């Protein structure tokens, strides 16, 4: 059962990141920081450059792809979890730093929670294998 929960969580995190960065890039959502209407204006609201936005987007999409691949190659699981978890922690910081309503932080909080749960399910599987 834990295996299937982990797979669902990995797919959810990966597809959510891909959706935001590849398909909803220029679209307005209630989750955009500040008064932003797209990703470019959201990063500007946080005081971050366009180059930073492209670097973060590339890193997130690449980590999401690795997280999907880790469904089949377990040894690849930890690096994308750490990258995505770190980036979601930073996203929460930036939402709070500009005084966003809590609802705007919800996607980052859910992605961070999912990564944390995947990590602990992984750790629990390793402990069970030792017994």
Please characterize this protein's 3D structure.
Helix 3 runs antiparallel to helix 4. The chain has one domain. The mean pLDDT is 92. The protein is 75% helix and 0% strand. The chain is mainly alpha-helical. The two termini are 19 Å apart.
Low-confidence runs (pLDDT<50, min 5 residues)?
Answer: none
Number of distinct beta strands: 0
Q: Can you write the helix and strand succession as a string?
A: HHHHH
Structural class label: mainly alpha
**What gyration radius follows from the Cα positions, in whole Å?**
16 Å
Specify the biggest β-sheet. none
Q: How many distinct helices? A: 5
The whole-number mean of residue pLDDT values reads 92
Distance between the termini: 19 Å
Helix content bin: over 70%
Query: Outline, from the CA principal axes?
Result: elongated
Number of domain modules? 1
Strand content: under 5%
Short description:
This protein is mainly alpha-helical.
List keywords for this structure.
131 residues, 75% helix, mainly alpha
List the helices and strands and how they pair.
Elements: H1 2-23, H2 39-45, H3 50-69, H4 78-97, H5 102-130
Helix pairs in contact: 1-3, 1-5, 3-4, 4-5
């Amino acid at each position: 059962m834990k295996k299937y929960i982990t797979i669902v969580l990995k797919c959810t995190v990966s597809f959510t990141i891909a959706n935001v960065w590849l398909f909803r890039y220029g679209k307005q959502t209630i989750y955009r920081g500040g008064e932003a209407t797209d990703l470019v204006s959201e990063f500007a609201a946080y005081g971050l450059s366009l180059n930073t936005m492209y670097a973060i987007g590339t890193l997130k999409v690449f980590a999401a792809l690795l997280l999907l691949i880790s469904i089949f190659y377990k040894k690849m699981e930890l690096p994308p979890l750490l990258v995505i978890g770190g980036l979601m922690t930073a996203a929460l910081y930036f939402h709070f730093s500009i005084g966003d309503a809590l609802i705007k932080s919800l996607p980052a909080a859910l992605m961070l929670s999912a990564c944390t749960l995947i990590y602990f399910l992984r750790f629990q599987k390793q402990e069970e294998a030792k017994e």
